[in-house]
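Page 42, continued from yesterday. The earlier attempt failed because a stray header line got pasted into the input along with the sequence. Redoing it now with the clean sequence only.
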Amino acid sequence: MTKQNMQALTFKRYGKSPDVGFRAVPRPTELKADELLVQVHAVGLNPIDNMIPTGMFKPVLQFQLPATIGSDLAGVVIQVGSQVTRFKVGDAIFASIFDTGKGALAEFAVVAESAAALKPARLDFVEAASIPMVGLTSWQALKERADIQSGQKVFIPAGSGGIGTFAIQLAKYFGATVATTTSSKNLALVKSLGADQVVDYTREEFDKVLKGYDLVLGTVRGDAIEKSVGILKPGSKIVSLVGPLDKAFAEARRLNFLLKFVFGLMSRKIIALSKKRFVSYSFLFVRPDGEQLSEISTLLETEQIKPVIDKVYSFAQAKEALDYLAQGRAKGKVVVKIV
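This time it went through. Structure tokens are written below.
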């Protein structure tokens, strides 16, 4: 394959002026044995896509600058590595490439075979691209980390957001009773997704209303995690997707002693509060997983779970899409359509 360039949305440096913009970058030509080259049709955006260029995750996530932004994609396989067995050229796939040092907001992307799954036939590329990170995060939090059981009570704050709209549906699929928070204008949306109890945060405080819960999914920054300790019964769990990072996370990623110490300090207050209530706290960092995406795909095919998409932008509008997402008002997902 001759060396060619492709368009990608990249950032040049970390900090307050990351210089986000479109650049011509080399189109991938060399694949490892277990990799796919994918023509990207659509990219689902996630809040962390805006956080990474600030440097917030620089000690944890490794990128070579300038780095391509974005983690979730749907597209068509155009080349396969020598040992790939699950996919062939022409297959429509979807995947998260988060935490791999690669980015999705480009005309082409390299995807590990283990991270990809066949795109659900029922979904178009835009819908499929909206799923990977929120789907995997919800699956890994609810099923793996919390081992959610039918009949348990789960609190999923910010029910109208990207994670919330998916996690509510997945928790209901697992048989849980679900409570959430949202504003007045989104009450009908979260109820339509299956939320059993909805707290309008413009009128009530959730910790004054909810009691006796088995699990809290931490989706909101600030003091919401600490407040949520009070709604849990002894023996229950908090699985946070927004921090604070903890020592166990640092150890799992084999980070240095200083980072273990820092993350231990960051999480000291919430862990102490949790222990007083006989509650466990943990921070979850999503990982790509094609097998889990395949299981999620089955739920999408059978319409047990439906994508919730707020806005779709063109590739040329990708910066505007990130700016819109940063406002924190999206109902469901924001997607960039490339092809």
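Notes: The longest strand covers residues 35-44.
Reminder to self: strip header lines before submitting.
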